Amino acid sequence: MKTRFIIRFIAGPLHDRTFEVGDGESKIVGKTEASQLRIEEDIMISRTHARISVERGLVWVEDLGSRNGTFINGKKIEKKTMLKAGDKVTLGQVSTFQCSRWNALEPSRFASAVLTRVTDVTKYVRKRPKSSLLPQFLVLQTVVCLVVGAGWYAGKRYRLQAMQNLETTMREQRKAVAVPETKVAIAPAAADKGTPEIPRNFIWDEIVTVSRRFGDTPPSVLDTQFQKKVEFWIDRFTKSDRHKKLFEKKEKFWPVIESALTAQGLPVELGYLVWVESEFNINALSPVGALGLWQFMPATARDFGLRVDFNSKIDDRLDVAKSSKAAAEYLSLLLKQFGTDRYMLAIASYNAGQNKIQRKAIAAQIRRAPKPDFWALRGQLPEETVDYVPKVLAAIIINRNPERW
């Protein structure tokens, strides 16, 4: 039997997808229809980016003159290069994969294994002689699929049971540290104005609700530091009625922002990034050159179809509809790269830059973290980025409960 290898993507739009390549075969990675591995969502991938081939039991990678290069373990390659065990290949800057020998007994590769076996059967049927061993071959393939399927099912049941046990433990921990429903005010300034006092657990419940609204994992029940940061930013936003002025500015732009996010299938709550980024000031300009409601840098703006031409004085970052559409596409791309259940990581990435977050996510995977989400990576991210997520959550909570402030 020919030696076969698994190509497993650990980052990028094809995250967690696997492909097979066997001895004497090759696959082109790019965006054209001729590419066996098409990655259309990654803007850093060229039309014909690289070739992956297997020769005499060895895996080789060759860059085909791509615009953004091909890297092995962070080092750009200029010629056909052999892969070693554990090597990480990055195409452009985001999409990253590793290779390993094919193992049909690994549950997560069941679908890929079955697909490959079906392909083998198809090729065999086309080329078989008149008197063939086709019946025996089909029986053997059926047995293999049943054995692999049983292993996959057992692994799935085991992971499901482990998750249920973890949820039960977290519920018990939360009950153990639950705080009585005593009434306290979040901000002293709010108490002076005679506004209603808020139950101590109200902010925590809102954090959990918003996290679940995003489909993301809430913070640990023991993570009081994160809740304090959210409360801090709620206090800052509501101090001296600053938030009421933002409520008025929001009304002018919100229908356009909501329409752009909905078109990409994103929660409208992501629109409150504008609250944090520019406070709904369309002419907001940062010291580093970010401009507009969504604070796009010129290069990022151009990547998502916005015209930024200083000579002609054309800057689509000042156009609410166009910049909101570009921001929605950008957030959608981040979610495809990190996973649709990792909104907190996508929000952090909007602040710090997707490549920095991506490198941390890959590092967490190498260390076999349970899940490379925002909570697993928080200790490794810049302080500004760690503070950005509770800042956005504070804006969302205020706008979900305007009557309280």
Q: How would you summarize this macromolecular structure in one to three sentences?
A:
A hairpin with a 3-residue loop joins strand 10 and strand 11 (95-101). The strands form four sheets. The protein has a six-stranded antiparallel sheet with strand order 2-1-11-10-7-8. Strands 4-3-5-6-9 form a five-stranded mixed sheet, with no helix packed on it. Strands 12-13 form a two-stranded antiparallel ribbon.
Q: Could you walk me through the main structural features you see in this protein, from its secondary elements to its overall organization?
A:
This protein has 405 residues and is of the alpha+beta class. Helix content is 47%, strand content 15%. The protein is globular and about 80 Å long.
Task: Describe the secondary structure blueprint for this structure.
Elements: E1 4-11, E2 18-22, E3 26-30, E4 37-38, E5 48-55, E6 58-63, E7 70-72, E8 75-76, E9 81-82, E10 89-91, E11 95-101, H1 110-127, H2 134-176, E12 183-184, H3 188-192, E13 198-199, H4 202-214, H5 224-238, H6 242-263, H7 273-277, H8 298-303, E14 308-309, E15 314-315, H9 320-338, H10 343-352, H11 354-366, H12 374-377, H13 383-400
Parallel strand pairs: 3-4
Antiparallel strand pairs: 1-2, 1-11, 3-5, 5-6, 6-9, 7-8, 7-10, 10-11, 12-13, 14-15
Helix pairs in contact: 1-2, 5-13, 6-9, 9-10, 10-11, 10-13
Low-confidence stretches: 104-110, 177-199
Q: Structural class, from secondary structure content?
A: alpha+beta
Q: Helix coverage percent of residues? A: 40-55%
Biggest pleated sheet: 6 strands, antiparallel
Topology as H/E string?
Answer: EEEEEEEEEEEHHEHEHHHHHEEHHHHH
| Mean pLDDT over the residues | 79
